[in-house]
Amino acid sequence: MATMWLLRILLPAFLTTLPLVSFAGAPRSFARYSHQHWTEGGGAPAPVGAMAQGPDGFLWLATGEGLFRFDGTRFERIEVEGSGQKNDLPGALLVTKSGDVWISLETSHRFAVYRQGALRVLDGPPASSRIVEMVEGAHGEIWALTANFSAEALRFRDGQWKTFNAADGLPSDSSSNMLVAADGAVWIACSDGIARLAPGAERFAIYRKAPYGVLSQDREGRIWLSESHGSYPITGLGGRGTPVSLRTPYRTGGALSPGTPLFDREGNLWIGTRYGGVQRLSTPAATLESGGGGAAESFTSRGGLSSDVTNQLLEDREGNIWVSTDRGLDKFRSATLNADPELELPAIFGDKLLDASDGSVYIGEAHTIFRVRPGGTPEPILRNVIEPQSMCEAPDGAIWIGFATRIVVWANGGIRQMIERPDQAASHKVIYDCAFDAAGDFWMSASGGGLRRYRDGQWETILAPGDRSDFYPTTMIAAPSGGVIVQTGDRLVWIDSAGRRSSTYLDFGGSELAVLTLYAAGEDVYAAGAFGLSRIRGAQVETIRADPVSPGSRINGIVQTPEGDAWLAYPRSLVRLRSGDIEHAFRDGTFPTPTLTLGFSEGLRSRPHSHSQRSMVRGGDGRLWIATETGTLWMDPSHIVRNTLPPGIAIKSITADSRAHRDPKTLKLGADTANIEIDFSVLSFADPGRVRAKYMLEGFDRDWVDPGTRRQAFYTNLPPGKYRFRVIGANNDGIWNRSGAILDFEIPPTFFQSTWFPVLCAVLVLFLFWVTYQVRVTQITRHIHGRLDERAKERERIARELHDTLLQGVQGLMLRFQAVAERTTHDEKWREQFEAALATADDVVIEARNRVRDLRGVEGTNDLCAIIEHLAADVPFDPPIPVRIVVEGRPQLLHPSVAEEIKRIVREALFNIAHHAQASFAEVAIGFESRHLAIRVRDDGIGIPGDVLVLGHKDGHFGMLGMRERAEKIGANIMISSSPGAGADITLTMPAKLAFAKRRPPRRSWLSHFMCRSSIDE
């Protein structure tokens, strides 16, 4: 009761304020655009002056805070290099076809160019005054218009500036703007006329006298002049010939901004004004033949423009219209969802929508009921009403409209009947909803008033089925089987036509997940709300649960198209679901992915109203009508505004250990780089919040990374190497740019990460191994040499002892025996025997002396060649055979002990050849190499028997066994091989350090060397 009393007091005051927040201030033509602005409060610089879009997609802005580039979400400031230019703000702005960004500097009157990530001031003299506009000529030359009182233009071509003024044909008064026509001609508008520089000419010509205005060019190449009396063409097609004669100019009056007017891709003329916002003239070129005279419509700060003081206009490559103002930046985009200016005062609890059986749509606003016929526009059928609360269609086509105190029946173009609401349903009891059942009875639910039915001119109260105390009916709809389906509290129930029987379809168990809207499609009934979406088909109920349950997932409206697709209204968007996806979703219970989402950028200016029983309906012409918090919108699902242009992708910077590199292409970073941040942009301005991005660092990432709304990539402690960073992106409609942007960079290795480091480590390890090996070899050599020296000394001692004792004693005895024999033996026979015995004793002494000599070694025979020569001559070959001695390398002296053992091994080998081989040829090859000594003895005899080779010796013979033992003593390796009939081959090898003496032998004469290689015949 208190609530309705307060409503009665506040409602009139509220209604008087609604026109201030509705779309009444927006003209008809601007109703089909979505509008968005950025101001200082949203992080935008201000004021914004000149604008241009680069080939990569960035929007460049010359502002009162400096030069900025904008990617749809972030404003990035670009500073001029050099400390002296920090406070020199940009004036005019131009982006060339090559991507260079030119600006003029307001204080110094110089020019700066942004190229390869840096904004640098050009060399050369400054302009005579500030620059108001810059354009690019047909052949890439740069034109600049100054703000002098006498018209002056500058041209930059081939690195040189040239000035054009009155001496070059320009008027002597001030200029307003300049453009380059499609044929390459340069046009300049001045206070007292229009000048034109023909292609290839070097002197301007006065084209015509004209009042002060600004020039523009339409899509067919006509040049237009907009001045205080209006806008009109001054040339024919292609910028030539006589223009079409108009009865009156198009009305675009007002103080015009000096910025160039803009013809968009649809042919609409946009004009910025100094104090009156932005003007739009709908396709003037299309109505030239009819004499023109149409009026432009304005969009001002009252409609949402950031400021009525505008500076410049720009159409980007996606068709968005940009307006720069003294307070920020505005964007207009053709919208899928449209507002109709007739629908200018929404109801306090949302407009009431009804789709009638004849295809008409009825809209109940705060003070007017409208009817929209298929293909038509809203027509008022009831005026001066107060807040309609519900609308239903009777079986006969009459429209029953519920108000606070009565039901109005509208039919055949007028009011047919007015029915007072029942006494219990006083005016403070707001009608929730109404419906007609299959029997033609009218049902109504009201706050605190329960459920009412109107039958045969009488009101009936329908009590709660089962006498439930929580029966609070709200949303309802006619049931296909008769009766009605009603939401009551936390349940959705069916009540038969008699109001006596009921059944529960949905029960939320006391939760707040109530049904917000009901929709009938044939024999099916859909219920939707925060819980998700349910379909009632006969007695079966199927539900798709919303996941997650949140305010953003609440469904406010539902409509199904004849094709079976479903449109759902959410608090922030409209989505489309394909019929096949819906059927699949009802089978598995999970919500399908929408195939299309419409939001703010498509014209959804406010939320679909949650207090409307049906916030969305479909008319007979296929258009959808949506009741939002700021009015009713409509859309044609067959004419969705699509963004088919892939987005631009740009890698803005790479920051390596706090050092930033802007606009990199290829880069070599520091060897000790640890932290890398890469900033990139997906450049689509249709709806920047819905663009998508993926990136991959080839050589590191295994798959594409989806960063969500983040536009940075971070990497830490990358190993050294060459990398390629790739970014791809999709616009708001899912159109992908898969070529994307690429950044190649290299992280060189530090010394410890370089390939040389492990090589050097390996070399060092090998060197250490080599040193260790050399030390070990030296130790072994010393050990072996020590043992050999000990043996040699022991042999010498034994030899001396034998010589000084045994041989001397034996020889003394022989002398005595000789003396005794000569004195005492007269018998010739005994004398001969005595002499024979003494001769034998002489032989024994000689043999003993030989053995002593062997024990001492051969004096001066450390020369291996000499040893071999001696052996070859000493061994008794019978019959004699040639022994060939071959020497390779530079001969070196042997260690004495080694020389003795080698001599005995070679002697044994030659003796075996002489006694067993039956050879006709023998050869001894000596190899003096830097690392080892090799001696090879071979013959062409009968060879060594196989069993002897296997055993290593012959029973009772120890020659071969002795050779191996002697080789082992000196650290040598001996290999004996033989083949039957092919002779024997004995190879002795030993390390050079063990074999050779420390000093090299004196250089042998060539004759000695030749003799060493000669054959010796025995």
Automatic annotation (TrEMBL):
TM stretches of this protein: 755-773
Molecular function in Gene Ontology: phosphorelay sensor kinase activity; protein dimerization activity
Superkingdom classification of source: Bacteria
Claim: Membrane is one of the keywords in the record: yes
Keyword Ribosomal protein: no
InterPro entries hit by this protein: HATPase_C_sf (IPR036890), HATPase_dom (IPR003594), Ig-like_fold (IPR013783), Reg_prop (IPR011110), Sensor_HK_TwoCompSys (IPR050482), Sig_transdc_His_kin_sub3_dim/P (IPR011712), WD40/YVTN_repeat-like_dom_sf (IPR015943), Y_Y_Y (IPR011123)
Protein name: Histidine kinase/HSP90-like ATPase domain-containing protein
GO cellular component terms, semicolon-separated: membrane
UniProt keyword list: Kinase, Membrane, Transferase, Transmembrane, Transmembrane helix, Two-component regulatory system
Residues of the Histidine kinase/HSP90-like ATPase domain: 897-994
Organism of origin: Dyella japonica A8
